[in-house]
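Meet my pick.
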Amino acid sequence: MAGHNPKHENTVDDCFELFLVNEAEGEKKISEQPFAGTSNTSDFTLMKEDHTIGNLLSEHLKQHPHVLMAGYKVGHPNVPEVLIRLQTDGTVTPREVFIDVCKQLVAAYGQLGREFTREYELRRMVAAGEQDGANGRP
């Protein structure tokens, strides 16, 4: 086939693979490194992520009552890696707060998904009923 480039055959699959960690090679999605310069502070590295999750987590971490400081950075746009630095007041560890906030976000977005699906299904049923009414069906 003229102009055929085998490099571009599975571009969708390849793009998706950019965000999956390879556990077989020992990659971890999240790692924690205590920050030596400040007490009750840890750096969390999220592999194969970007500003979307960094900003979301950082802003929700800041709302936690035991958090003194939270922020994130992406070292380079071409490196899909997010660093989140988190400092707590010492009553709980940074890891405990990180896990708690992640659980809250999973629950909140799960609820959003259920509400969205319910609303979509209701609108679909209403539209089907209106279509039946327009066709003369009771």
